[in-house]
Amino acid sequence: MKDVLDKLDTRRANARLGGGMRRIEAQHARGKLTARERIELLLDKGSFEEFDMFVEHRSTEFGADKTKIPGDGVVTGWGTVNGRTVFVFAKDFTVFGGSLSETHAQKINKIQDMAVKARAPIIGLYDAGGARIQEGVAALAGYSYVFRRNVLASGVIPQISVIMGPCAGGDVYSPALTDFIFMVKDTSYMFVTGPDVVKTVTNEVVTAEELGGASVHATRSSIADGAYDNDVETLLQMRRLIDFLPSNNTDGVPEWPSFDDIERIEPSLDTLVPENPNKPYDIKELILKVIDEGDFFEISETFARNIVTGFGRIAGRTVGFVANQPMVLAGVLDGDASRKAARFVRFCDAFNIPIVTFVDVPGFLPGTAQEYGGLIKHGAKLLFAYSQCTVPLVTVITRKAYGGAFDVMASKEIGADINYAWPTAQIAVMGAKGAVEIIFRADIGDADKIAARTREYESRFLSPFIAAERGYIDDVIMPHSTRKRLARALGMLRDKHVEIPAKKHDNLPL
Amino acid sequence: MFKRILIANRGEIACRIIKTARKMGIATVAVYSEADRDALHVEMADEAVPIGPPPAAESYLLIDRIIAACRATGAEAVHPGYGFLSEREAFARALADAGLVFIGPNPVAIAAMGDKIESKKAAARANVSTVPGFLGVIEDERHAVKIADEIGYPVMIKASAGGGGKGMRIAASAGEVAEGFARARSEAKSSFGDDRVFIEKFIVDPRHIEIQVLGDKHGNVIYLGERECSIQRRNQKVIEEAPSPLIDEITRRRMGEQAVALAKAVGYDSAGTVEFVAGQDKSFYFLEMNTRLQVEHPVTELVTGIDLVEQMIRVAAGEKLAMTQKDVALTGWAVESRVYAEDPFRNFLPSIGRLVKYRPPAERSAGGITVRNDTGVTEGGEISLFYDPMIAKLVTHAPSRAAAIAAQSEALDAFYIDGIRHNIPFLSALMQHARWREGRLATGFIAEEYPDGFAPVKPDGELALRIAAVAAAIDHVLGERKRRISGQMNGRVVVRERRRAVWLDRHEVALDVARVDDGIAVAFAGADGKLGPATVLRSSWKPGEPVWFGSIGAHGLTVQVRPIANGFRLSHQGVEVPVYVFTESEAQAARLMPAKAANDSGKKVLCPMPGLVVSIAVSEGQEVKAGETLAVVEAMKMENVLRADRDGTVKSIHARPGATLAVDAVILEFA
Q1: d(Cα A420, Cα A422) in Å, to the nearest integer?
Q2: In CATH, what is the architecture of A2-244?
Q3: CATH number for the domain including B82?
């Protein structure tokens, strides 16, 4: 009996060594951790249960059968993050460069299926060289099995992809189907075709970092929702993110005891909006001052910075925040900002995370670049996302809410539950100058008349009170009491339930 | 007594005057510029009158507007505070002409002391000690030596026509005088075309010590002890104290009596300050007289128990001083730090913006310790470019100098400001400085002790252990809460690891942490991994609170906490360090992570503060030498010249003249 037990120990030790010490050291030399080291940091100590440790590939082409390594380039299993179940797979770069074979794909499929059955989040850690070429169509089909499961799981359990090394070719599409992608700066990149192919096809000379590094995807392409300095920082931030996320689409948001008084008054918010309506201010100050303990997990921080999206908590429960950022492009809505916010809103709605929207938007960004770029449909994505929400929606207009952007930014008429405005709010079709020049076109030559009309317009329209008189907003609130009012509104809406007409699925303007 | 007074000032001093007036039952009128509409002094006053646009020259300095504001509100008297109109003879006269009372000295006294040369003459006439020197024509070397012998060594030989250090010689002996005289004269001749030189006493390691005087309109003048203000940066006072660690009872009386003599000689009838330069041997010489309330007056108030603003108001109303010299007693020690909106890590460049967080330490007076914070701002207020960058004056008073410094240090640790850069790290570091603690001061203190500017204090030894222990305790509280999240798997308890590796930046401290009945116990691991004895940390700190107040064992401790990714930035006694509390396996992995170069900013020239690019002095491809001008940025109405810190070639220029830049915006890049 003892021999058999020893044999298991030996086989396990062998499997845990992956591609061997030399490759592990090479991985470390690149500033990267191994798949198992990563899982150990991501999960609670000692909670990881590995599956399919002994799985090997079955390929015989090109002498592939001469090299078999247990695990076949991916470590899969489950464990806990602060006691909550999560499923995880981590590509093992030390084994066949983490490349995807038929059996490798089957290992991932197994835990995808289990995650959906168990209704627990799944996290994929990527560090791999793409398809295992020797396996041909079997590898390609393997990808498809993974993709389809990603899609079926979408909206059922949170799916998170973390790019911690190369991720190219077929490997990129599974992350692209998941809810969030995070990358490690300098040691990861992501692209469909690499620099060599790019050069061959287009003669364009570009490095892997320039083509698909973390900075590119987190700031320009919006592929990545965040980028961190190294493996350790990234994995610890993933633990922090999971603390904000529901386990699935039915359980509701996680809750923990808050140390922050929900009645907390913030007098400094009364001076947040500057006297001069053209002066910017930092909307993140508002977010940080209304959420519990100032703990905010920002999503897509460096892309489309004219809108802020992220998770915070009020009364210990997760809330999604969407806020125009006057500091960047005056908080205007452009195509990028609309897409970024729309995706975030849909994630929150899918997983029953209430949404708080802070509005200070001068409108949609004009210009050929925007119109040719499809602004209408990008704006419609955000409009669609908010309009289909069944989660609690609370909106606060802090300053400008002009034109169509007023409607889009979670107005009451598209389904928001509670709409507040600060006394500094200006709810109108457009700003004073433009409005006066249209309404009083005949007076344009007369500076005095225009000035008088402008003053008249400003005092009549650039306030929250017309909207309040007509019930388009529910109340005008003191900025310093915003946290208290939000907490009460969200508490009241906690069991909000609305039905939408049965449909096969909607048709988002993609 | 007045029923209503107007305060022709802003900021902390306006607030401070309003407090006293209120205590005396006098109604207050504030004035404000457009930039100060939401300022604290406006909110505190019973009434407030707008007086113009933000620049002081168009508001706070306009005498007519102040008088009009008095008329409009019925104010009978005006307190000018310090700065602005406080030492303008014309203002005092204009108020008198308008039938209003100036809460300050009479215009004749202001005029007499306002002129540097006239005031020195007046001082000499009043037998006040002035710097010994010879202002007449010096005939030759022998004459020069004779004069120097009379003055006493060392002496300074200086060109009469000169400015700056040119043609200046220090001589410590007769021989050096003879040689220096000839050289100074020829240098003066060649530099200024005028070979006249003069000789005066050279004071080695001078200290700035000043006497507070108080007079009334009935010819009474008393002195209220001294203040030492030797800790200065570029002639800007940073730390003041009363009394001075240098001055003994006899010197104090001599200085005080001379100051009173001078005040009486010019008919001084309010609060004023006679400034002296003092040698380390307690010799002292008249410098100038300030005919106003000084910024640093609170230290005198705390050691004398006398409210100087109240006294100024009373004497202005014609009351006789209620006290005589023998009633004045100095009790304990007071230390004041000036909290400025300037970045100590960027050569003290001014910083402007919104006070996103402003949490000064609580004012209190208990157990012999007083903490007083004279401030003119609140959280959510704005530090604008129009006025003085002083945010607050933090003053502590205790029975002894050491206790006052300890209280000041603790209060600074609790002083939490976000949104702008400020000099609290520098002040905190100063409070720990051995030379300061020993009281070995001189006006060159900062230049001598920080010749290369100020860098954050590196945590080591005991200090590092204390910071690590606090970090572990904070992390433990957060960890306990994480383990209470909903939705946990049944039947499985998360294993909590006791051993932690606390990283203060890259400096590692191994320890063991556990909850015990009355707090959190921390034991440090030695080099062999064995744990030392546990110490208990007690604190009521809760997640989200900006300051950790607590104790380690028997020692009280205050640490500022700012969350960063996976850790905290902790500030304590001038240390500002990112701290990470890792488990052992996390630390092991973290050790494998490459240290990243800080964004390669060495090759970039960044905008040091928000400002306007006035000019770019170089072009792309140009080779520049270290010290060459690269660009000029205007901020706070000051032109700041950015120079190359090394030789190199300009690769690209990112900013154009006329552009408005944020702090850290890239102006140009080197190849």
Answers
A1: 7
A2: Alpha-Beta Complex (3.90)
A3: 3.40.50.20
Contact B495/A37, CB-based, under 8 Å? no
Alpha carbon distance B432, B574 (integer Å): 8
Edge-to-edge, what's the strand order for the sheet holding B333-340? Answer: B284-290, B271-278, B207-215, B221-233, B236-242, B333-340, B390-398, B369-375, B364-366
DSSP-assigned letter for residue A70: T
> What angle in degrees, to the nearest 10, is found between the helix axes of A432-439 and A447-461?
120
Tell me the backbone φ, ψ of residue B341, rounded to 5 degrees. -85, 75
Q: Which residues form the domain of B176?
A: 132-201
- Given 3-state DSSP classes, what are the helix, strand and coil percentages for chain B, each rounded to the nearest 5? 30, 35, 40
pLDDT tens for chain A, residues 1 to 510: 788 999 999 999 988 998 899 999 999 999 999 999 999 999 999 999 999 999 988 888 887 778 888 889 999 999 999 999 999 999 999 999 999 999 999 999 999 999 999 999 999 999 998 888 888 899 999 999 999 999 999 999 999 999 999 999 889 999 999 999 999 999 999 999 999 999 999 999 999 999 999 989 999 999 999 999 999 999 999 999 999 999 999 999 999 999 999 999 999 999 999 988 878 899 999 999 999 999 999 999 999 999 999 999 999 999 999 999 998 888 999 999 999 999 999 999 999 999 999 999 999 999 999 999 999 999 999 999 999 999 999 999 999 999 999 999 999 999 999 999 999 999 998 888 888 888 888 888 888 988 888 888 888 888 999 999 999 999 999 999 999 999 999 999 999 999 999 999 999 999
Bridge partners (DSSP) of residue B547 are B560
State the Cα–Cα distance between residues B487 and A25, nearest whole angstrom. 38
- Identify whether B38 is part of a domain: yes
Instruction: Check whether residue B379 and residue B465 sit in a common domain.
Output: no
* CB < 8 Å to B593, chain A: 31, 229-232
* HSE of A197, CA atoms in CB hemisphere, 13 A: 7
Could you tell me which residues come within 8 angstroms of residue A446 by beta carbon, excluding any fewer than 6 positions away? none
Q: How far is B494 from chain A (nearest CA, A)?
A: 6
Structural domain count of chain B: 5
| Tokens 């294993």, residue located | B495
Across the beta sheet with B4-7, what order do the strands follow? B47-52, B27-33, B4-7, B77-79, B101-102
Report the alpha-carbon distance of residue B217 to residue B132 in Å, rounded: 33
Q: Say what the pTM is.
A: 0.91
Q: Show which of B148, B168, B201 is a domain's final residue.
A: B201
At residue B640's C-alpha, the angle toward residues B636 and B646, to 5°, is 150
The CATH T-level fold of domain A267-425+464-492 is 2-enoyl-CoA Hydratase; Chain A, domain 1 (3.90.226)
> B154 preceded by cis ω (within 30°)?
yes
Q: Are B235 and B446 in contact (CB under 8 A)?
A: no
The answer to whether the Cβ–Cβ distance between B483 and A293 falls below 8 Å is: no
Residue B38 contacts A, CB cutoff 8 Å: yes
- B565 Cβ under 8 Å from any chain A Cβ: yes
The answer to whether A246 touches A252, Cβ cutoff 8 Å, is: yes
Q: At what angle do helices B63-73 and B89-97 cross, to 10 degrees?
A: 30
Return d(Cα A80, Cα A247) in angstroms, integer: 11
Please give, rounded to a whole number of angstroms, the shortest distance from the CA of A94 to a CA of chain B: 17
- Residue A22 to residue A272: CA distance in whole angstroms: 57
**Which helix (H) or strand (E) covers residue B562, if one does?**
strand B555-564
Q: Residue A184: closest CA among chain B residues belongs to which residue?
A: B593
The nearest alpha carbon in chain B to A260 belongs to B544
d(CA B371, CA B377): 17
Please judge whether B487 and A84 are an interchain contact, meaning their C-beta atoms are less than 8 angstroms apart. yes
